[in-house]
Specification:
alpha+beta, binds zinc ion, two-stranded antiparallel ribbon, 191 residues, 7 strands, three-stranded antiparallel beta sheet
């Protein structure tokens, strides 16, 4: 039986299957192009997997150890569907309102993650009250959440620290770190 040229239509499913078969392995763009059947559209298909299917395919924008043109899928578990129906405008609004900062751990978009130095912080939009519990897609029920918190990897920080606890932490910190906190606060409040 002669091998037929795979139809372009199936490129996305082939890419999906390839990522799932290669969980945890860094895949180069050339390989993805080949899997997609040589179509120049492979990059768009990968964006669809990320955007429409919520596949957490990582790139150099997410991980410091990845180079441009390298892709990595670590978990077969996609981003929850509930977080995918939110418009670009609402996402932008919520991210801006939250200062591009994870509302659980304080990590800032694009910066190295405070709890995992190998990762750059990537923000998602999360529901404050889960949709399954009747929470809405309105901006008031949405917040910026980093991928580490989204995966539940930093659940030690699920609650915001209270003022008393926070001050104790700052008082115990080194002078150098206290000064860094001061600089950060001045920058934030324009003092
Ligand atoms: Zn976080």
């Amino acid at each position: 039986m002669a091998a037929a040229v795979p139809p372009i239509k199936g490129a996305r499913s082939r890419l999906r299957a390839h990522f799932l078969q290669n969980l945890g392995r860094v895949i180069h763009a050339d390989e993805l192009r080949e899997v997609a059947g040589g179509t120049s559209e492979w990059a768009r298909r990968v964006r669809e997997l990320r955007g429409e299917e919520g596949s957490l395919i990582l790139t150099h924008n997410d991980r410091a150890e990845l180079k441009p043109g390298q892709y990595l899928l670590e978990s077969a578990k996609p981003q929850p569907a509930s977080a995918r129906g939110i418009s670009k405008e609402t996402r932008a609004f919520v991210l801006d309102r939250n200062g591009f900062t994870c509302q659980m751990c304080g990590a800032v978009a694009g910066e190295v993650h405070p709890f995992d130095a190998s990762r750059k912080t990537r923000l998602h939009i999360g529901h404050i009250i889960d949709k399954s519990l009747g929470g809405s897609d309105e901006p008031a029920n949405l917040r910026a959440i980093c991928s580490v918190c989204n995966e539940g990897a930093s659940n030690i920080t699920l609650q915001r620290p209270g003022l008393a606890k926070l001050l104790v932490q700052v008082r115990r910190a080194t002078t150098l770190d206290q000064r860094a906190v001061l600089v950060w606060l001045q920058k934030k409040f324009g003092a």
